[in-house]
Amino acid sequence: MPDITINDRGAVLIDKALTIDGHSTNPLRVVTHIHSDHVRDLSKSVNHCRGVVATPLTLDWLIELGHKVGKGNCLKLDYGSKIKIDGLEVTFERAYHIPGTSQVVTTDGDGLKTVYTSDFKKPGKGTPIVDCDVLIIDAVYGNPSHIREFDDYIEDVLTDLVRQLLSKGPVVIQGYHGKLQEVMQVLRANGVDAPILLTPKVYRLTQVAEKHGLKVSNYVSVDSEDGAEVMRTKWFLMMDHVNSRYSRNLNGFKASKILLSGWEFKKPYRYLGYSKWLVAFSDHADFKGLMDYVINSNPKLVIVNSVRSSYADLFADAVRRTAKKECVVMP
CA 177 to CA 201: how far, in whole Å? Predict the structure, then answer.
């Protein structure tokens, strides 16, 4: 079996050659996507590792977010492409999470295959399930009670709610970077054609994503002249980071607000009061999705990354009982 450890920052270390989503003295650092818990200590890796690797969109987004990854030791790796580092072959597979996210597949000199899923949802439908000998999984929703029966149709629920609220006036959707771009693409694909106002950072990230194939149209920056014209119509969507203050300036518009959250399991959406709604739109597989990946990837060993998993021990117990797989929790 390959030599695998996970440190207390959640970094996955494989065969003293590769570190994923964290920093170590291993020569190669992989970043699976831009969310903050996966870019920890990135500046250390840029300065001290032989190379930093990510998908083209992820690296371009990191640059847009201010990370110093424009140096010569940073490599863009497309899905399906391969590189080798100290006898370890590294391949990226797509993960349905936010745009640019990758699963990391490694094959050692003995032909043993290890998969680190990173964050994902819809295994077998949006996220390819990769056969492997060792599966390293982030069980974000590791509690057996973390089940969303409505996951398969939540995009339609969100679209219908947005249409309903747009008939009354402006709508603000709040979420995290990456998820906002995904939701814009979903709404456009489902026929929502209202102009979209974007806060400056969301606007720049969306422009970068469009260069990599994201399909969004009719969007403008809230700080632009076109944005001011759209606001005067009082019929628009605004996409705003959950920690931003921009949407607070829309109180005079009587805008409806939608908060995107994965921590709702009973209902696809609920009313919070004061024209605010919560929609259970998650970019992570629920407990059933996690177990589907474990069972169908057919690993000999499952490793649960406890730093990025809730109820890691409960999930590991479920893997042993239900999937009949050897399973350990690290660190």
Answer: 9
Q: What is the pLDDT of residue 175?
A: 95
Q: What is the DSSP string of 252-273?
A: GGT-EEEEE-S---S-SEEEEE
Domain boundary among 279, 298, 315: 279
Helices in 107-224 by DSSP H: which ranges?
154-166, 179-189, 200-211
Q: How far apart are CA 261 and CA 104, in angstroms?
A: 26
Closest CA to 113 of 293, 299, 320, 295: 299
Q: Work out the angle between the directed axes of helices 200-211 and 179-189 (0-180°, nearest 10).
A: 70
Q: Does the pLDDT of residue 70 top 90, yes or no?
A: no
Q: Are residues 225 and 275 in the same domain?
A: yes
Range of the domain at 188: 151-279
Same domain, 218 and 319: no
Is pLDDT of 207 > 90?
yes
User: Are 21 and 47 part of one and the same domain?
Assistant: yes
Residues across the chain: 331
270 contacts 277 by C-beta, under 8 angstroms: yes
Q: What single-letter DSSP state applies at residue 39?
A: S
The domain that holds 119 is classified in CATH as 3.60.15.10
How much is the CA Rg of the chain, to the nearest whole Å? 21
Write the CATH number for 235. 3.40.50.10890
Enter the pTM of the model: 0.95
Residue 188, exposed/middle/buried by CB under 10 A (0-12, 13-18, 19+)?
A: middle
